[in-house]
């Protein structure tokens, strides 16, 4: 991917004199959900006397994000990530608490606020399905009041950066999933926002497309100093882009700190998988780590993080290896361990 050239947005307005660009205090959201019993009786009762139960999607969440940070926002399904992002972008009103983003109150949805932020949701699209992406981009340019010259130069630079040249004139439905996601990103960045809220931006993409999106985001952040809050269920997105992670579970913040801290503390082991040239007895393999699985020539160990380099060197030197891979435990597994402790930690 090429450099961002004149795509660099103007210097970030830091709001209340050099304070955090995102400030969240005691944020909560309660959804009232209508409850209906099954059957005709339930339908009639529901029609005349509706009852509601309350879903506490987000409960007392507080954090601050500084300009230029890339923060992973993690949690299992239903933890409250999307709800939080919706409150941070002003799509829904908080039930309680305070939010400031780029010195604005999101729910006011003022023009200056909308110029400063963008929201990309992997499972939703803003580009019109049957039209060429270019047409949707022109609409966006008009909405954000970009001059023709500005639109053209940003379009040229971003489409080159995202390797989308030649793709924007065909209907969106004819683009591959990866191309469509990149076109969505282009549309979301045309107005040069300072704060990017990305909800599963690599959802469903193949490995190459995921890497391309990640590389683009990293470069965009480095070149422009844009702040990024990113949710993803793909660990690789988080490790490639985020130094800091915020974890929520059942609507509550349970960890806010460095990614290494999370992995070291809750996933002190890595998984080493090896394909041997010929089978070995279990006793010959135990010195390298705790054997998780041994099937013929395939062996999988759990190896302590601090012993990883030495262990891999020993395996390669002492055994005849055809293939070797090292993986982190799945993020869900790591998150599961964090849930068990239920502790909240500060950033530093
Ligand atoms: N509009 C709504 N009305 C009622 N309940 C809702 C609404 N939106 C979300 N919820 C509930 O709020 C909780 C949090 O949902 P949310 O979509 O924020 O989670 P999430 O962390 O983004 O999950 P996922 O990873 O699956 O996208 C869930 O229990 C969900 O069912």
TrEMBL record:
Annotated keywords: ATP-binding, Nucleotide-binding, Transport
Q: Which Gene Ontology molecular-function terms are recorded?
A: ATP binding; ATP hydrolysis activity
Top-level taxon of origin: Bacteria
**Which intervals hold domain ABC transporter?**
22-275
Q: What is this protein called?
A: ATP-binding cassette domain-containing protein
Query: Per the UniProt entry, what species is this protein from, by scientific name?
Result: Zarconia navalis LEGE 11467
Per the UniProt record, the lineage of the source organism begins with: Bacteria, Bacillati, Cyanobacteriota, Cyanophyceae, Oscillatoriophycideae
């Amino acid at each position: 991917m090429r450099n961002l050239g004149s795509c660099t947005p103007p210097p970030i307005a830091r709001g209340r004199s050099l304070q955090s660009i995102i400030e969240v205090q005691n944020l909560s959201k309660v959804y009232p959900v209508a409850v209906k019993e099954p059957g005709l009786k339930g339908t009639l009762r529901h029609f005349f006397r509706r009852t509601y139960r309350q879903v506490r999607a987000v409960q007392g969440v507080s954090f601050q994000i500084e300009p230029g940070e890339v923060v992973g926002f993690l949690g299992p399904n239903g933890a409250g990530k999307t709800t939080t992002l919706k409150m941070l972008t002003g799509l829904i009103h908080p039930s309680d608490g305070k939010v400031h983003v780029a010195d604005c109150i999101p729910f006011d949805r003022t023009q200056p606020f909308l110029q400063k932020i963008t929201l990309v949701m992997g499972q939703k699209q803003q580009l019109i399905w049957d039209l060429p992406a270019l047409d949707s981009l022109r609409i966006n340019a008009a909405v954000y009041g970009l001059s023709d010259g500005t639109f053209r130069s940003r379009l040229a630079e971003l489409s080159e950066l995202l390797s989308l040249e030649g793709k924007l004139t065909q209907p969106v439905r004819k683009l591959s999933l990866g191309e469509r996601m990149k076109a969505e990103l282009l549309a979301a960045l045309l107005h040069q926002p300072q704060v990017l809220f990305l909800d599963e931006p690599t959802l469903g993409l193949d490995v190459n497309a995921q890497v391309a999106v990640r590389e683009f985001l990293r470069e965009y952040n480095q070149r422009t100093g844009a702040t990024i809050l990113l949710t993803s269920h793909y660990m690789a997105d988080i490790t490639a882009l985020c130094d800091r992670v915020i974890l929520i579970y059942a609507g509550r913040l349970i960890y806010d700190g460095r990614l290494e801290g999370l992995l070291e503390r809750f996933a002190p082991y890595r998984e080493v998988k090896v394909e041997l040239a010929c089978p070995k007895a279990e006793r010959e393999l135990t010195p390298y780590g705790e054997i998780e699985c041994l099937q013929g020539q395939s062996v999988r160990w759990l190896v302590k993080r601090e012993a990883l380099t030495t262990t891999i060197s020993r395996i390669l030197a002492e055994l005849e290896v055809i293939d070797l891979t090292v993986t982190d435990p799945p993020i869900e597994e790591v998150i599961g361990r964090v849930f068990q402790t239920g502790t909240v930690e500060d950033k530093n």
